[in-house]
Amino acid sequence: MNAPGPAPDSAVQSEAPLDVAAVGIGPFNLSLAALAQPLAGLRLAAFDQRTDFRWHPGLLIDGTTLQVPFLADLVSLADPTSRFSYLNYLRLHERLFPFYLAERLHTPRAEFDAYCRWVSAELAADDGSSTGLHFGHQVDAVRWNLERAVFEIDFTRLDQDGEADALGRAYARNLSLGIGTAPQVPEPLRPLVEAPAVPVIHSADYLDHRERLLAAEHVTVVGSGQSGAEVFLDLLTHRPAGQERLHWLTRSPAFAPMEYSKLGLEHFTPDYERYFHALPEQTRNTLLPRQNQLYKAIDSGTIDDIHRELHRRTLGGGWPSAVLTPGVTVRTAGRIGTTQIELHLQHVEQDERDRLTTHAVVLATGYRERSLDRILAALDPYMRRDAAERPRVDAQHRLVLDPAVTGDVFVHNAQTHTHGVGTPDLGLAAHRSASVLNTLTGAEPYPLPRRTAFTRFGLRRPAADAETALRAGQSALRPLPAN
Q1: Which of 174, 306, 311, 314 could form a disulfide with 20 if both were Cys (CB 3.0 to 4.6 A apart)?
Q2: What confidence tens digit (pLDDT) does each residue in 7-41 have?
Q3: Model pTM score
């Protein structure tokens, strides 16, 4: 099914305010729109400057999968009966039995992208719904209108070439911000990215440059997260044996596997999210950097595939010309002529320096949360910030605003500092969307579980957990007396 193009603006430009305007149409706001669709009387419109739905198109490498099970789709963990579930997508495409017989828990990345595009097309085609997806609409600014008690959303409608076509304004009682993340490029390499003579690209754009990278005489991959591992494996697999000429560098002390034990995964539950949010700000700041193994490492299966391919290339004798070096930082970098790059390296543990000459660089250096400041500049006087000048976010994923603003601003994937490592995880998307809709409606269209983890993350029993225990005739743990 074709993805929708720009939608007419008559509905969103009506003087009657929307119940919620969603800015950005990634998986999180798409989840919100899908779960909002069956709620009678709830008016939601979502805006995105892209012409159609796209989910990490540069990383849809053949054979790669999501790091979460298929139930972490847009709706199932809040409403498994939804017509927008992944299983229903497979059923309607007559692929449910092949999926069942494959016995695979994790969805191919390209399949997840196709599923999300199907959901967006279904929502856009549902003429009887007040839920609207407006692609080709760039949100320029958001203001709070004190007199009308609504948000004003100024947008530019774009044509198929991305050029401005018309200006518009929508009104909404509440906002949902899902503007996603942006590729992170280390400072020493930024000048190289801006000069395209030698390819220095972020892994987010890998597939757009893949043929050029495969043809390069020598390629260096920087970064040892999942994306770096997948790019290195793809390059290794498709370059001739004995002529691999690859370097894989990371500042991490090892090419380490992601924490994927069942109890470790409980850090990606609403229970842990609530626990983390209740911690003091300074404790949260200290805790996050120590949790990289939960989400910044490599799937053990990918590590196995890399080792298997490297080992296969030793069967005829000799070793592949692939160098994997952890514990290395890129201090500076420069160009040599028009065809090479020189990386200035420092090994952390040996305290030694070296230089590496290469013909192409792939930066698997992660992503950063996009700043809300540009879109919300007019709301800045109303926003409450923490000691690091980050927006404060309450337990219901709302920005903490001055009481003069009676509308809510919900955020997705912009609150790691307040809600922890599960913030960008797809497994929490449906639960968060359901929580947002429960708050918006003042009802409970999506009943949510009181408990989601076997681990109790603190000494005090959470209120919902205590209620369950009391119903079972148990006594709740009393807080320790103050010293």
Answers
A1: 174
A2: 445 556 667 899 999 999 999 999 999 999 999 98
A3: 0.91
